[in-house]
Amino acid sequence: MLLEALRADARLAEWLRDLESEGAPRGEAVLPDAAELPDVLLDLTVAHEHINELVALRDELAADPETMALLSRCVARFVRDMGEIGKGWEPPAFPASTGALGRCFHVYVFIAALPYVRAYHRERGVPEDVSRRTLADLGRHVAVHHRRLGTPGLLFPWWIALHFHGELFQLGRLQFQRARLGQRTGRAVAAAGLDLGPGDPCLSLHITDFRGPLSPSACDRSLALAREFFARHYPDERHDVAVCHSWLLDTQLKRYLPAESNIIRFQDRFELVYQNQTPDDGVPVGFVFGDPELAVEELPRRNSVERAVGDHLRAGGHWYGGQGWFAL
Description:
Helices cover about 50% and strands about 10% of the residues. It is an alpha+beta fold. It has a six-stranded mixed β-sheet with strand order 1-2-3-4-6-5. The N and C termini lie far apart (about 50 Å). About 30% of the residues are buried.
């Protein structure tokens, strides 16, 4: 049983206790029935090859009252403070010991939360196409799990929580997260003469895979969409600055990629605030090659980015995340 496996893990047992300490939810979570669920999954761009397994697991979940009670608690906690920056819920990934239902459990949490998310989007006047493409990132992350592990599931359920909590939107090539300036970036923005500082609103840019080239024209279009979208649907917030924290801002990439490459032109948009001091080699390996655990000596060299990431590691180097900003 799922609950038994969770209680056997000390970290997750504590998480369960914290969740239960908030009291029983006001209502039960409602899942689409087995006939409706395939259409819901397809609308969220979950691949056809996973539909049968997810429908079967849905029936297993629904037949267990204790696990359904956990689902209701998760949904109630998740939709609380809908749309509030930084007040969302970060559900933990479940270990392999929880089996197929454990690796897919959060998919059902997000599906059960859909009515609340869509109601929030309607309240804010979010266009249907933006809502659809934002929530469709669930299917993309199921694909990421499948690419890495060969099964449906979610590697990072806490990340999808941003989409379903009204904090992040897909606008063209880029994703934009409603966020607040941190201490170092806020001080850098203030030092540049902008009337902003730590704690003030900003838009955090995220670059997804499976979305085509990161071309300057695609980025320009996304930024134009973002300026219009947030001014219209979040007029009470001031979004004058974009920030990004990514391995794509590691300045070492300029040793390997030409100045006219998409990645370097993306880098050049930003004023770099700082570079992390702790290596994080698994992030670029995971994004570029699909699996952060791949052996460095076996990384392919099929294009300039693969050669840059792999050759640098094979030479004994490391990759570091960078933080930058630019004015919108």
